[in-house]
Amino acid sequence: MDKLTTVGAERTHLRTDSSGARTAAGGGRRPPLGNRTKTTSKPRGAGLPAEQVNPMTGEIIEGERTAQLARAERFALVAVAREVLGKDHRTGKCMQRRLPKQTVKVWKDAEHGKAFYSGVRTCARLWTCAHCAAKISERRRVELVAALAAAKALGLHVKLLTLTIPHGIGDDVKVIVGKLLGAWKRTTNGRAAKELRELLGLKGTIRAFEVTYGANGFHPHLHVLLFLDKPWSNASVHAAFSPLWQNSCRLAGLPIPSDAHGCRVDDGSKAAAYASKWGLESEMTKGHVKRGKQGGMTPFDFLRAVLADDPDAAKYRGLFRAYADAFQGQRQLYWSNGLRKLLELGKEATDEELAAEQTEKATMLADLSVDQWKAIVHARAQAAVLDVAEDKPQELRALLDALHRRWLDYRKRRANGIPVT
Ligand SMILES: [Zn+2]
Questions:
Q1: Using CB atoms within 10 A of its CB, is residue 372 exposed (0-12), middle (13-18) or buried (19+)?
Q2: Residue 312 forms part of a structural domain
Q3: Both 288 and 272 in a single domain?
Q4: What range does the domain containing 250 cover?
């Protein structure tokens, strides 16, 4: 059973990691950035482009994307990932299987009205899981913003370095990813890298690993926040990094990128803009066809294409599998040694810890029986139940009962050999 502590009329839900161990939110290892509730509960769709795709039908709809629509899409994308990667892949079980020895509960955040489940497994596979990508990325994004603020307070100068490799160098994304990360390693290790750090006064880096897909195939690339103790111009930083990146690519077995395209340096305001939107990119549904034509689908757009019955759905299934295989286990963000300490940000949480974390102050609306949860999963109604919990909690009981009756009817029909849909 979940342990609950009473705080006035509310309850504080305790954080539960995937192994079932529990720590009180706010006790034990504190989240690196204090009050997460406000940030994590903010509607993620706020401010996104008006043109959107209905995740259930693939239709482009008008109007502002709501947090509920974004959540419904995440459940839909995980269902597609389950089908594409196979139900034994951990993402296929995310927000579907129960945690051992726990019941699934429906909660509602007291301050922001956001509903969520406890007692369900999360996969922490941010490359393939829309749920975990959203949750982990949001928390990491908040840390990026905090890192920039801390750097400013220390008088450091931040640049955004973008490192790319030539397009069209083959279809084997796993091989390309290995070589790209090899090139980055050479850019940060060794004598030349040390000399560059000393020359620039480079105190640390945060490396973000991203991938898009366009006319020339997969395009993995790196965005690196550089924390410098001297106010160098963009041109000076470029002049220092570009030859090192080119040489590192050569040694890693990649074609040598051009001076103009391989390495780009932007100043602090671009770095701040990048950090503030980081991780939201994969959530921005603009219509995969239009987006693809503009050059640059994200891997979650492959799943959107499958969901929308795109004529090329078979191709996108294959691409998603190749991508999942290539990125599995890769770090999405990497902080150079000592930088977190310098910026006083504390220990970095693992993907697993972030995916399982729940710190919201919340009220419990329902403690579901095993059958009730099975009924919800069977009807793929996980998002719908949370919508009702948020908008019409008084109708939650009736919805759960209706889903349960449908589940019992389904089981009865199956047991009697009556065709079921
Ligand atoms: Zn997941």
A1: buried
A2: no
A3: yes
A4: 145-293+330-349
283 φ, ψ (degrees, to nearest 5):
-90, -10
Instruction: Compute the distance between CA of residue 287 and CA of residue 51 in angstroms, rounded to an integer.
Output: 8
Same domain, 165 and 244: yes
Distance 39 CA to ligand 1 centre (A): 20
Q: What separation in Å is there between the alpha carbon of 130 and the centre of ligand 1?
A: 7
Distance 391 CA to ligand 1 centre (A): 25
**What is the whole-number distance in angstroms between the Cα of residue 132 and the centre of ligand 1?**
4
Same domain, 342 and 368: no
Same domain, 49 and 74: yes
| Integer Cα distance of 74 and 30 in angstroms | 28
User: Does 104 fall in a domain?
Assistant: yes
Give the Cα separation of 223 and 278 in Å (integer): 10
pLDDT in tens, 34-64: 333 333 333 333 333 434 444 443 333 433 3
State how far the alpha carbon of 107 is from the alpha carbons of 114, 162, 293, 357, 382, in Å. Answer: 8, 41, 41, 14, 13
Q: How many domains does the chain have?
A: 2
pTM over 0.90: no
